[in-house]
Write a structure and sequence with these properties.
The protein is 46% helix and 18% strand. The protein has 369 residues and is α/β, with parallel strands linked by helices. The protein folds into two domains: 165 residues, Response regulator (Rossmann fold); 174 residues, 3-Layer(aba) Sandwich (Rossmann fold), CATH 3.40.50.2300. Bound molecules: beta-D-glucopyranose. GO terms for molecular function: carbohydrate binding. It is found in: Cell envelope. Keywords: Signal. This is Sugar ABC transporter substrate-binding protein.
Length: 369
């Protein structure tokens, strides 16, 4: 409650600042303003995306849906990508505030730098939204994401389903976890551990090698998985935390003629991940309807930029401070060969980009219209 009052004050202060700071400003390549002025003049919203390599989603989905939502609301915005550079991340935040941002939305690269940015913004009366990744100990005004433990549960259940389909006996399961500095990676792991640990404990499955991939670096994931497979050539299933890590494992499995025999999981429903599923090399992915996440975050940001105090549907406890962060959490969906078509029907990927070359026949087989 106390926190809520603080953010209201911050938002009001931010609005006052924004009204003067934003006047007459224009023209960064990534920023847009609408032709028709909104009824209540709002401040400017700054968004910092993390990188463009750890997952295709940030540039192909998040940027697009956020742009659409801000444009529809008639607010000024500036979306930039830190390209996995923590120093650049902080510089971008400073510049956004200097250039009149009255709300900041960040996808942190780690909680430490995220926290620095949030605190600096707060000191300037600029409220922040943790977008997709919670900044531990950060104290953002809001957090918008998916139910990330559920994402991990779906991955664990997916791997069990695919191993069962393959009638695997006492399969050795390897883990390629996400970045150790991403709170989401911790939540995904707690989700799949919840499903797989009982299998290890009962002796149905055998726990194989496990590695966390720094910064979700796909290239490093390939090297790590190569080492894992050398150490344990009988790996029979791979819990990979996203499609990029999954593809890194699949590339190594292909070199060893094991693709399609060893199920691999993923996340993000990227074109590459979905094509790997169509080819039979990837067992499943988790579709997160990013449009819903972007719309929810944009709605909060627009309200804050107008000096309002929006309410969030739920809250999440920051494990470091014990404080409740007002939150909006969306529902993820498991995707297998048979429902790849759902992702296309939802408009997240197009048939044209998915069903290229040899995938055309697979698309027909999977009922993709
Ligand atoms: C996101 C995933 C993404 C990963 C790597 C996570 O925080 O939730 O969707 O694949 O970061 O960018």
């Amino acid at each position: 409650m106390r926190k809520g009052i603080l953010s209201l004050t911050a938002a009001a202060a931010a609005l006052a600042l924004g009204l003067t700071a934003c006047g007459g400003e224009s023209g960064q390549t990534t920023s847009t303003s609408t032709a028709s002025a909104p009824a209540a003049k709002a401040g400017k919203i700054g968004v910092i995306l993390p990188d463009s390599k750890s997952s295709a989603r940030w540039e192909t989905a998040d940027r697009k849906y956020l742009q659409e939502a801000f444009t529809a609301a008639g607010v000024q915005y500036d979306i930039q990508n830190a390209q996995n550079d923590k120093t650049a991340f902080q510089t971008i935040a400073d510049q956004m505030i200097t250039n009149g941002a009255t709300v900041l939305m960040i996808v942190n690269l780690d909680s430490g730098t995220g926290k620095t940015v949030i605190e600096k913004a707060k000191s300037q009366g600029v409220p922040t939204i943790d977008y997709d990744r919670l900044t531990l100990g950060g104290g953002a005004a809001y957090y918008v994401s998916f139910d990330n433990t559920k994402v991990g549960t779906l991955q664990g259940e997916g791997l069990v389903k695919c191993l069962t389909d393959k009638k695997a006996e006492k399969p050795i399961v390897a883990y390629l976890n996400g970045s150790p500095t991403d709170n989401n990676a911790t939540l995904f792991k707690s989700g799949y551990d919840g499903v797989l640990k009982p299998k290890f404990d009962s002796g149905d499955y055998v726990k194989g090698p496990e590695q966390s991939v720094p910064d979700w670096d796909n290239t490093q994931a390939g090297t790590l998985f190569e080492q894992m497979l050398t150490e344990q050539p009988k790996i029979a299933g791979v819990l990979a935390a996203n499609d990029g890590l999954g593809n890194a494992a699949i590339t190594v499995l292909k070199k060893n003629n094991l693709n399609g025999k060893v199920p691999v999981t993923g996340q993000d429903a990227t074109v590459q991940g979905l094509q790997n599923i169509l080819a039979g090399d990837q067992c499943m992915t988790v579709y997160k309807a990013v449009k819903k996440e972007a719309d929810a975050a944009a709605k909060l940001a627009v309200a804050l930029a107008k000096g309002e105090k929006p309410t969030a549907a739920s809250s999440v406890k920051d494990p470091e401070t014990g404080q409740d962060v007002p939150s909006e959490l969306m529902d993820p969906q498991a995707i297998y060969f048979d429902n790849v078509k759902d992702v296309v029907a939802d408009g997240y990927v197009t048939k044209e980009e998915l069903c290229t070359g040899d995938f055309a026949a697979k698309c027909t087989e999977a009922g993709i219209q």
